[in-house]
Write a structure and sequence with these properties.
The chain has 75 residues and is mainly alpha-helical. The protein has one domain. Helices cover 69% and strands 0% of the residues. It is built from four helices and no strands. Helix 3 runs antiparallel to helix 4. The longest helix has 19 residues.
Length: 75
């Protein structure tokens, strides 16, 4: 199975990242990216009462989903 943009694996990873930030990267085996997204977005959502972290978290969450959807492993 090719892992090109739009492949089934990337769609599943994007859905996983939508549910839990960083989970899609974890499914793809990108541990450092998964940890970064989970901690950063989780922290932003934790401080959502301050509004600005909520906006930053939402933007990073969207970037996380797009990153999982567009991932192409090096060959």
């Amino acid at each position: 199975m090719s892992n090109s943009q739009g492949s089934t694996a990337n769609v599943i990873a994007a859905i996983c990242s939508f549910v839990i930030p960083g989970l899609g990267q974890l499914v793809q085996g990108r541990l450092l990216a998964a940890f970064f997204y989970f901690v950063t977005i989780g922290t932003c959502y934790f401080f959502q009462a301050l509004v600005l972290p909520l906006i930053i978290g939402a933007i990073l969450h969207l970037i996380c989903i797009i990153s999982a959807a567009r991932f192409q492993p090096r060959t």
